[in-house]
Amino acid sequence: MKNVVILGANGRTAKEITFRLLEQNDVNLTLVLRHAERLNILPNNRIKIIEGDATDPDALQKAIRGQNIVISAMGGMDLGDKMKIVVDTMEKMKVARIIAINAGGIYDELPAQFNSWDKMMVGHTRSTNLKAPGVIEKSTLEYTILRPVWLTNNTSEEFQLTKKGQTYLGTETSRASLGRFVADIVKSPSLYINENLGISRPHTDGDRPAAYRM
């Protein structure tokens, strides 16, 4: 069995990941979230729930102990600080594999027109989001960092990838595709080790996501 913990488990993306991981019969899940009563999920003997977050060292150590893979679906303006605590805890407890969801645009890697629009809309979050992958990449962990943009509830699981340093493709990412890709990595954990990847839905090129086009 693989033991997998999801940090920030109550978000919509985390739920897409949870749903797909439960399709894998060799996965035991630990879900970490601040308010367990808000989690709308059917009881399952392969799911353990821990109330807390990455700012709670006791809860974090309890969550990470004995895990094979850590998935971070955390957000917030303190993401860099939280990721530092997660990385330090993983290294201390000898848990090596992490899949961390961040955000596209943090390296100014979006196509020029889309990059300008994204900066205008959410540019204030970029410096905060940028701290987290920096912490991970300097660590001893085996990481996969994912950079989606403008998440949608589209049910398509199609995705395209770009490597760090390449110009990003597309303007949006479906949560379903993010869930599928993370589940694929959990199924084969040796995939995409020490890679920092943009992930987006194909055929969504433009100067902004479809929902914002006139």
TrEMBL record:
It comes from the Bacteria. Residues 8-189 form the NAD(P)-binding domain. InterPro entries: NAD(P)-bd_dom (IPR016040), NAD(P)-bd_dom_sf (IPR036291), Polyketide_Oxido-like (IPR051606). SUPFAM superfamilies: NAD(P)-binding Rossmann-fold domains. One of its GO terms (molecular function) is riboflavin reductase (NADPH) activity. This is Putative oxidoreductase.
